[in-house]
Amino acid sequence: MLAQRPPMGWNSWNVNLNSNDYPDFDQLTEDSVLAQGQAMVDSGMLAAGYEYLVLDDGFQNARRDHRGRLQGHARRFRSGIPALADQVHSLGLKFGIYSVPGSLTCAQQYNDYVADGLGSIDKETIDADAFAEWGVDYLKYDWCRAHLNDGILAVESFTKMSNALKASGRDIVFSISEYGLFKPHEWAPEITQLWRTTDDLFARWDSILRTIELQTDLHPFSKPGSWNDPDMLQIGNHGLTSSENRAHFFMWAILNAPLMAGTDLTRMSDEVRDLLIHPGVIEIDQDWGGSQGRRISNTESADIWAKPMSDGGEAAVLLNKSDSAVRFSLAPHFEAYSTAFDVFTGLALSPLDTIEVAPRDAVLIRFN
Ligand code: GAL
Q1: pTM (2 d.p.)
Q2: Which residues contact 191 (CB under 8 A, 6 or more apart)?
Q3: What is the 3-state secondary structure (H, E, C) of 85-131?
Q4: Ligand 1 atom with minimal separation from the 200 CA
Q5: How far apart are CA 303 and CA 144, in angstroms?
Q6: 14 lines ligand 1 (CB under 6 A)
Q7: At the N or C end, where does the chain have fewer CB atoms within 10 A?
């Protein structure tokens, strides 16, 4: 089964966004991408489970080649995408790429990326076959207003690419993104391994809280091989504090979310690296105890989210959304358990404790 556990990796998109969330495509080059791949290995991220290196929008040349195939940007990806895929594989990583079901990529739509004919509309088989031949392991397939630009239907066009990928003969994880517009949780589990549930996540606390809020009723729809995707990680990016990074990561873990790092791995701090590779947090994200996490308590300032673990215990996040400290009582929810510990610090707790959580922070706990 593809994506038996939530996929983990790195994606190029969030790395080159400026403070207005606008991308700088000049920074996206084959050398910069390979440097990220090398950093995935050297930092211990590959060993921790991050295996996909995904090239997002902006790698494309302005035109397809004479066979109608996508190609890398002539100046920035001079060796070509197949050669890049080989080099990524030789680092021990898997290689992912980006396309769209309509005619325009989002960079063309929103970021003045000048190109023509990049979309996979009516070219699903050409693209899927090329991806398979190049050794692509993961496709991010991004809607970008195709219903408005091209008058196409989401389920139909995502199914076309799903079928083309299956017919290509290579195992390619199919990750779709239509931002939750067409209730993807109702149909995407049949044709994809992961589907975005919301619009883009930005490196801002309000964006993180808004995205979390939109995950509240989605726990019944995910399972091994099909995952709700609340978007790529913003951990390490300018705009988030240490405690906000932590809360973001704990929440993605409790949701069994795909963990696609989106920061510059060649320049991340030790603190960010240690968070991204924290074995106790990753173990919770990757553990299927029968359901992704769901919210079990909610006020304007604080949430408790919990998920069953396969060892019969439970994991929970105490999330302080507010700007003042909040005191949580564990007993009403967890008194049936005999042991508890703080996953991040390793410190023993009691299921009867009350715990103070700092502003815009979270505590992740395992109960048994
Ligand atoms: C957005 C998508 C982002 C990124 C971008 C590329 O629609 O949500 O994750 O892929 O397009 O242009």
Answers
A1: 0.98
A2: 158, 159, 162, 174
A3: HHHHHHCCCEEEEEECCCCCCHHHHHCCCCCCCCCCCCCHHHHHHHH
A4: 8
A5: 32
A6: no
A7: N
Bridge partners, residue 329, by sequence: 354
Instruction: Report residue 106 as tokens.
Output: 């989002």
Residues with catalytic roles = 142, 200
The C-alpha atoms of residue 185 and residue 192 are separated, in whole angstroms, by 10
Given ligand 1 and candidates 13, 54, 194, which is best to mutate, with the most ligand atoms within 8 Å of its CB?
A: 13
139 lines ligand 1 (CB under 6 A): no
Helices 124-134 and 81-90: crossing angle, nearest 10°? 40
**252: amino acid identity, one letter:** W
SS3 184: helix
Exposure string for 266-298, b = 16+ CB within 10 A, e = fewer:
eebeeebbebbbbebbbebbebbbeebbbbebe
DSSP states of 216-267 as a string?
Answer: TT-GGG-BTTBEEE-----TTSTT--HHHHHHHHHHHHHTT--EEE-S-TTT
Q: How many CA atoms lie within 13 A of 76 on its CB side?
A: 18
3-class SS of residue 223: strand
Do residues 222 and 228 touch, judged by C-beta distance below 8 A? yes
Average pLDDT across the chain, whole number = 98
For 16, which DSSP code? Answer: G
CA distance 115 to 122: 17
Q: Are 121 and 77 within 8 A, CB to CB?
A: no
Over residues 307-363, the pLDDT tens digits come to 999 999 999 999 999 999 999 999 999 999 999 999 999 999 999 999 999 999 999
Residue type present at position 184: P
Please give the Cα distance from 249 to 343 (Å, whole number): 12
Which candidate, 265, 264, 236, 268, places its Cα nearest to that of 249? Answer: 236
| Token pair 């389920």: residue | 155
Kindly state the tokens that stand for 155: 């389920």
176 within 8 A of 134, measured Cβ to Cβ? no
Pocket probe mutation, ligand 1, options 106, 108, 139, 199, max atoms within 8 Å of Cβ: 106
- Looking from the CA of 72 toward its CB, the CA atoms found within 13 Å total 20
